[in-house]
Amino acid sequence: MCLGVPMKILSRDGDTIVAEVDGVQKEASVMLLGEEVGIGDYVIVHAGFAISRLDEEYAQETLRMMKEVFAPEDMR
Amino acid sequence: MKFQDEFRDRELVKNMAANIRRMAERLTKPVNFMEVCGTHTMAIYQFGIRSLLPENVRLISGPGCPVCVTPVGYVDRAVACTADARNIVATFGDMLRVPGSRSSLMEERAKGADVRIVYSPLDAVALANANPERRVIFLGIGFETTAPTIAASILEATKLGLSNYYVLASHKTMPVPMEILTADPDLALSGYLCPAHVSTVIGANAYKPLAEKYRIPCVVTGFEPADVMQGIEMLLAQVLAGESRVEIQYSRAVSWEGNPKAQTIMERVFVPCDASWRGLGLLPGSGLAIKPELARFDAERALAIDPGEEQENPACRCGEVLKGKLSPFDCPLFATACTPESPVGACMVSSEGTCAAAYKYGR
Fold first, then answer.
1. CB A20 within 8 A of CB B112
2. In terms of CA atoms, which chain B residue is nearest residue A29?
3. d(CA B63, CA B139)
4. What one-character DSSP code corresponds to residue A39?
5. Distance to chain B for A11, nearest Cα, Å
6. CB B121 within 8 A of CB B150
7. Using CB atoms, which residue from A46, A61, A67 is nearest to B197?
8. pTM of the model
9. Beta strands in A2-76 (DSSP E)
10. How many Å apart are CA B127 and CA B145, to the nearest integer?
11. Which residues in chain A are contacts of B3 at CB distance < 8 A?
């Protein structure tokens, strides 16, 4: 029950969004989110509510740093 | 999602594992890192994270599954609610099979009780709205990830003027049990992989008192294999440097302050209370109760619930599993008397439970 799922917002009508992951579409409420989100944004949906925005820039930055630190040439 | 797949990159994870092994060579004694989130437990088993780690870096599963930590007395109260034909009990699916003292919601439903599975607490509110002659009782369990969604459902019911929506509340909050487990000398914890989605709400600052008071490293970590490996790597780096800080690995979803709107909605509906945890007992200030001014939504106060006498199955060792003191594989019931099809204890029921994860992926 505690599963939060990262989903992409397909549409928004007031506080209700339709979001998608792996071809599955769900309705969710954004009334708990403090920041504005719109179509194309990623959110973590838990129990019918978006609880956090998922920042793609931060994700890319984390990956870039991981790849830099853990590059194969540095490994023995 | 494209960037999510990249966090499962085998090559990257393999390199991280090599790095962790090199770092671990410098350890003077083994380290025990605990994850206190059911989704981490699932990921660790599913991706075989333990098999990538050297022997002196151990992962211990803690009380991170909300269904698992819910005590048997709560299940009894939920079962008691089904006895009145006026009531509809609405719940997330994984509560259904948790055994109470004498019965489970599943058994009661088979006998004709009106128990409905909902995906969102708002679905339970809609159910109440559509059935004005019935009473809808929603089973409010879960940590800080779920509590705001249930608070929002109570505010929605207020807005709709509903007088037939109730919550049987048993919410738990995370930092308190972490403090209890850190202080336990038997566990000798060296660091925490802090829960990710709980932290989206409460913020990483919530672990600072823990890190400072007990000098224990804390890293808020995501769920993909590369996230978990990096979380372990960050904990190891702190241990080797003799540091104890809070760090955020999962910065794409978690901030230091958390989600202030969710926090405000939670504070409008709940107040901290003492709470009973399966395995850990009564922990002061570790739960959330519905505020007195909203008592009409509080099933406990608004309805007469008689759960009968509480009886734990004496053979069940879930309590020790939840404290990280017993591995599922060392429980005599595991995969014999206790399986996901016929669970004896809560840890085998929910997919986030340590025993269920070990059963599905670990054998």
1. no
2. B122
3. 19
4. T
5. 17
6. yes
7. A46
8. 0.95
9. 5-13, 16-21, 24-29, 42-46, 49-54
10. 23
11. 56, 59-60, 63
Residues in A closer than 8 angstroms to B142, CB to CB, are 1-2, 47
Question: In this complex, do A29 and B122 lie within 8 Å of one another by their Cβ atoms?
Answer: yes
**Closest Cβ opposite residue B261 in set A4, A34, A63:** A34
Measure in Å the smallest separation between the Cα of A30 and chain B Cα atoms: 10
Contact A63, B7 (CB under 8 A): yes
**Cross-chain residue pair B261–A2, CB shorter than 8 Å:** no
Torsion angle of alpha carbons B334, B336, B341, B342, nearest 10°?
A: -90
Residues B255-273 have pLDDT tens digits of: 999 999 999 999 999 999 9
Neighbours of B327 (CB within 10 A): 16
Average pLDDT over residues B158-177: 96
- pLDDT tens column, B60-113: 999 999 999 999 999 999 999 999 999 999 999 999 999 999 999 999 999 999
